[in-house]
DNA sequence: GGGTTGAATTAGACGTGTCTAAACTAAATA
DNA sequence: TATTTAGTTTAGACACGTCTAATTCAACCC
């Protein structure tokens, strides 16, 4: 059996692989998980022995199919939980991440099935992240652009925001920039500071580039994964 | 912070204390948790250092108020989860125990509050066990009698069944002997074998003494904790 | 090509929770 | 009272996941 800790490593490596592609470096995993590099080296050795990843010494690491499947399983749990907590237990959009992190390793297959059923097998979680399907086949990467890829005057629909930083999440939730909302870019200042107008409310909001980079958007007429109904 | 394992020990000691009173022996804890006695001795030493229990060497162990509070917190989590899974996720009466055991250590205070609210602050779980209140004051022991305390002809209402043994639970669920149902004792055979008739369905069922001892009952007119609506 | 530098790995230690084997206690028996 | 016995504790080992300090590697630059 795989420990919680091992599952966390696999999930982290999967995320890093999605962001920057393989190989994933020891130090990036260490930073992501808040561990020291030697700890990561040691753990990565164990995961390699179990066939969950491949490793080239001093280069980095890449998940095997098996490792990726485990990561997707954990991610499915995480995102189903986020969706469930939001829809059925009245959690706000930005509160769910920690709770899901704590529970994701401890739910049974049965629980997973029942939660999915209660939600009607959703395809995205409240942040707009795609929920891996029950068969754990790798989801095709949507190839969405980022808010900072666009310029003044562009009208866009928010598809996804990052769930990594609770503060950022609170800020966006506050600002009304949530998956499914339409925004228009009204200004781009030096250093990438972006000002957007939320079309429904008319409200304007400035976002630092670091945040703008984590917001995935699409053109209003494009297809996209279903946005979740965000009920903050 | 207290580890999951420590919480499990405290919960076990609490249960054993409820059943047979203090002091609780090393070997009984070991058997309850499926550990060896030396392991228990070692753990009990650590719990004593933390002020969670008192210990007399070669005699046994008794929870302090602080230890009891921790046990009640875990028990509250466990029983709220059992109730929630049964009522909102369509779990059957006998399936919930394992799931609750896995989750009880990992839910937040916030989660506890929201689950309790979603259930309307219930006082008993689906097996009829009392759910400790949010302030974690020790529940007064209900002083219910046991099915094996009664004789032929007695008509009784089931208040509580033990949730320790999934097989037994399945058996009782199958037989329709659930909290809130009225039964009549139709026969008591040698070795304590008890035959009961479920009043609603008219069905008869024989129960070995070991099982009869774990079923808590009351007279039909007595007060009792609210029975849960058992929807198997 | 040799030196510098930043990242990765090895070495060695520690805390936690578990085990088996051996020693010890205390209560019951003779 | 001496002995047996059942149960408890101590001693010592091990796996896991983590750390710090020391070493090694690879890439880059003059």
Which key features would you list for this structure?
homodimer; about 230 residues; alpha+beta; Arc Repressor Mutant, subunit A; Diphtheria Toxin Repressor, domain 2; SH3 type barrels; 3 domains; six-stranded antiparallel sheet; two-stranded antiparallel ribbon; disordered C terminus; DNA-binding; Iron_dep_repressor (chains A, B); DNA-binding transcription factor activity (chains A, B)
Task: Describe, in plain words, how this protein is organized in 3D.
2 copies of one chain form a homodimer. Chain A has helices spanning 4-20, 26-33, 37-49, 65-88, 96-103, 109-119, 166-175, 209-212; strands at 53-56, 60-63, 145-146, 155-160, 182-188, 194-198, 204-207, 216-218. Helix content of chain A is 41%, strand content 15%. In chain A, helix 1 packs across helix 2 and helix 4 crosses helix 5 (96-103). Chain A starts with a helix and ends in a 14-residue tail after the last strand. In chain A, the strands form 2 sheets. The first copy, chain A, has a 6-stranded antiparallel sheet. In chain A, strands 1-2 form a two-stranded antiparallel ribbon. With 232 residues, chain A is an alpha+beta fold. Chain A contains 8 helices and 8 strands, in the order H-H-H-E-E-H-H-H-E-E-H-E-E-E-H-E. Chain A folds into 3 domains: 4-63, Arc Repressor Mutant, subunit A, CATH 1.10.10.10; 76-139, Orthogonal Bundle (Diphtheria Toxin Repressor, domain 2), CATH 1.10.60.10; 145-218, Ferrous iron transport protein A (FeoA) (SH3 type barrels), CATH 2.30.30. The model of chain A is unreliable at 228-232 (pLDDT under 50). The longest helix of chain A is centred in the first third of the chain and has 24 residues, at 65-88. Chain A binds chain B through residues 85, 88-91, 95, 98-99, 102-103, 106-108, 110-111, 114-115, 118, and chain B through 85, 88-91, 95, 98-99, 102-103, 106-108, 110-111, 114-115, 118. Chain A binds a DNA duplex (30 and 30 nucleotides) through residues 3, 5, 25-27, 35-43, 46, 57-59.
